[in-house]
Amino acid sequence: MKTTKKELSPVQQLLEKKYNGGFLNRSERIIPIVLFFMAAVSVLTTLGIVLTLIFETIIFFGEVSIVEFFTAAEWYPFSETEAVYGIWPLVLGTLKITLIASAFAVPIGLAVALYLSEYASRRTRKVMKPILEVLAGVPTIVYGFFALTFVTPVLRDLFPSIELFNAISPGIVVGIMIIPTIVSLSEDALSSVPEPVRHGALAMGATKWETASKVIFPAALSGILASIVLGVSRAIGETMIVSIAAGSTPSAALELTSSLQTMTSYIVQVTTGDAGFGTTIYYSIYAVGFTLFIFTLSMNVLAQFISKRFREEY
Amino acid sequence: MALTAVKTMKNNQTTQTEEVLVYNTKNLNLWYGDHHALKNINLDIKEKDVTAIIGPSGCGKSTYIKTLNRMIDLVPGVKTNGSIEYRGRDIFSKEFLVEELRTRVGMVFQKPNPFPKSIYENIAFGLKIHGIKNKQIINETVEKSLRGAALWDEVKDRIHEPAYGLSGGQQQRLCIARCLALEPDVILMDEPTSALDPVSTLKIEELIQELKEQYSIIIVTHNMQQAARISNKTAFFLNGEVVEFDSTETIFNNPADSRTDDYISGRFG
C-alpha cells in the first residue's frame, strides 16, 4: 500500500524525517562508546593511583627495612643522626581518633536515625534532615578549628590534665563529622522496611519501641552496619581535623590526653614542609599512604561483605 | 436477631454462649480530617461467630475493622466519638492499654506481611515480646500454631528458613499462625485473600472453617461468595453506614433493605 505525501499528518511527517535521517542509528552507536570511555578513565585513574602508591612504596622499602616498618615502636623520621620508621605510632594515632569518633558517633547516629524514621512526625523529619545534611557539608577545616578553639578549651576547663593537642577533642569532632553519614544511610535503611511489617508487629501488641528495636532494626541491619563502616572509614581517612587539633607527635603511648600524629596528618606534615624530592622522608609518605589505603580498602570490603551477608529482602 | 438455626443446632456450645458479646459498638462516628468515614455505627458481635463485613470500596468496612483493634490510630488526623466495648471494656479508655487489646485481638492483613525473619522467629516473636522466654513453651507453641494454621506439614523441615521464601498463600497462613501463637480471643481479617490465587484462597477459607470452633472471627471481604460461604453473620456497609446486619442466610436470601439486595445481586459495587 502506498501513501502519498499529502496524506501524512504533521506527526507522521516528523517521524518520517526521524527515521529517514539515519541520525538515530549513528548516535545510538556512539553513546555506548562515549560512556565506556568515561568509565575507562575513572578505572584507569584509580589503577594509576594504586600503582604509583605501590611503586613508590617499593622504593621506600629499598631504603628502610620492612621489618623495621612493622616492628619498630617509634616513628622518628626527622632525626639527623638515626631516623626510625616504625608505623605503629601513626596507626595507633589513627585508631585512637577512629575509636573515639565511633564511640561518639555510632550511638548518637543510630539514635537519631531511629528517631527520624520511627518516631518523628513528617514535619520534624522535613526540618531535621536538611539540617543534618548541612552538617555533612561543613568543610573539615572548619571542624578542625572548631575542635582546637572551642572543644579543646571546654575539655581543658573540665579536665585540666588534658593537653592543648590531644586525641579526645579531634576524636569527638571527627565523630560529629561522621554523624550525618551514619544517620542518613541508617535512616534510609530503616525507612525502607515496608510499613505493613510495622503494622504486623504493632497489631500483635508490640509497643512502638519493641517494633522498632526487635523488628525494624534487625530488618535494616545490613544498611545500618554498612553506614557505620562507611562512617568509620571516613574517620580513618580524616585529615584536616586531626592535623589541626591532634598535634604532630607520633606517640606509641596508650593515653588520649596528649599530642599524637595520625597517618594522614603525617602526610600533611611532610607535604607542607620542605622534605626534598627523592629523600627517604619523601618516599615514606607513600608507604604510610599505602598502609592507610589498606585500612580503608578493608573497610570497604567489609561493608560489601556485611550488606551481602545480612541482606534481608522484602 | 436469631442465629441461623442450622448453625446453633450443630453445636451446643454455641447455644450456651450465644448471648456473650465480644464487641459492642454504640453510635460510633469516625472522621479522617473532614471526611466522615463511619456514621453512627451500631453493631453487636457475638462470641464464636464468623462475622463478615461486606460493601463496596470506600464504604468504611476496612476502617471499621481497624478501629476494633485501634490500628486506625496510626492514620494521622483520625477523630472518633461514640463507643466500642470489647467484652464490656471501653477500648478507647486510657485504662485499657492498646497493646493489651491488640494482644487479645489478632489481625490478619490484606497482603501477607511476615517479618523479615525465619518462619520460627515469626511465630516466636509474639511470645518473646510478651516476656515468654521458656524455649520448650516457645517450640511447642510454634508447632501448635503452624498446625493450627494448616501450615506445619508444608514447612516443618524448614522452620528456620526465611519466611519470605514461602509462597503468598503460605505467608498468609504464617500470618494467621503468628496470631494463633498468642491464643487470641478474636481474629480480625481485613480482606485476607484479596492478594491470593484461588487455590490459596480456598485453603484460607477452609482454615477459617476450622478456626471458628475456637475463635471469634470478623472478616472484611470484597468477595460476596466468600462471605456467603464462610460466615454466619453478615453486615452490609454503604457510605460509612451499616445498612443491614443479620444472619448471613437472611442477608443473602431475604435482605430487608433494597440497597442490600442491589449490592448482593451485583447491580452496583
UniProtKB/TrEMBL annotation, chain A:
GO MF: phosphate transmembrane transporter activity
Q: Where is it mainly found?
A: membrane
Compartment(s)? Cell membrane; Membrane
Per its UniProt record, what InterPro entries does this chain match?
MetI-like (IPR000515), MetI-like_sf (IPR035906), Phosphate_PstC (IPR011864)
Domain named ABC transmembrane type-1: residues? 91-303
The UniProt entry, under PROSITE patterns, shows: ABC_TM1
GO (cellular component) term, any one: plasma membrane
The UniProt entry's GO biological process terms, in alphabetical order, are:
phosphate ion transport
Q: Which UniProt keywords apply?
A: Cell membrane, Membrane, Phosphate transport, Transmembrane, Transmembrane helix, Transport
Looking at the Swiss-Prot or TrEMBL record, what is one Pfam family this protein matches? BPD_transp_1
What's its membrane topology? Multi-pass membrane protein
Membrane-spanning residues: 33-61, 97-119, 131-152, 164-185, 215-236, 281-303
Q: What does it do?
A: Part of the binding-protein-dependent transport system for phosphate; probably responsible for the translocation of the substrate across the membrane.
Q: Which family does it belong to?
A: Belongs to the binding-protein-dependent transport system permease family. CysTW subfamily.
Q: Which NCBIfam families match?
A: phosphate_pstC
Q: What is this protein called?
A: Phosphate transport system permease protein
Q: Which organism is it from?
A: Domibacillus antri
Automatic annotation (TrEMBL), chain B:
What span is annotated as the signal peptide, if there is one? none
Pfam family for this entry, one: ABC_tran
Q: Which domain of life is it from?
A: Bacteria
Keyword list, A-Z: ATP-binding, Nucleotide-binding, Transport
CDD domains associated with the record: ABC_PstB_phosphate_transporter (cd03260)
Gene3D superfamilies recorded: P-loop containing nucleotide triphosphate hydrolases
* Claim: Transmembrane is one of the keywords in the record: no
Does this UniProt record's set of keywords contain ATP-binding?
yes
Q: Where is the ABC transporter domain?
A: 23-264
The UniProt entry's GO CC annotations, sorted and at most eight, read: membrane
One GO-annotated biological process of the protein: phosphate ion transmembrane transport
Q: Name the Gene Ontology molecular function terms of this record.
A: ATP binding; ATP hydrolysis activity; phosphate transmembrane transporter activity
Write the protein's name: Phosphate ABC transporter ATP-binding protein
**Source species of the chain:** Domibacillus antri
